[in-house]
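Appendix B. Raw example, untouched.
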Amino acid sequence: MNDHGAMTVRIEASCEVRHLVEFADETVEKTLTELPAGATVPLQMESVGARGNAWRVTELVGVTTEAMANAAAHDDELRQRRGSETEHRESTEHVEV
């Protein structure tokens, strides 16, 4: 998360970069802020049309604290083995923080 409350993420499947500038609520924002760099999580997003490549996170899909910790550990393991691998307007995407 940068000083302006925005976060840049990479869509895992397409390597597209998106800028998250709005969040469904403080819990979603706080959860994303606490994720380690490189973690992969499924997000429901919608475009914030008037702001270019700006997106609003509407939901963390099926994400619990335990699931986030497991995902971060799994992502670290995958990156070590083969390096990082990397969808559109309103959809659920796996993004790398």
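End of appendix B.
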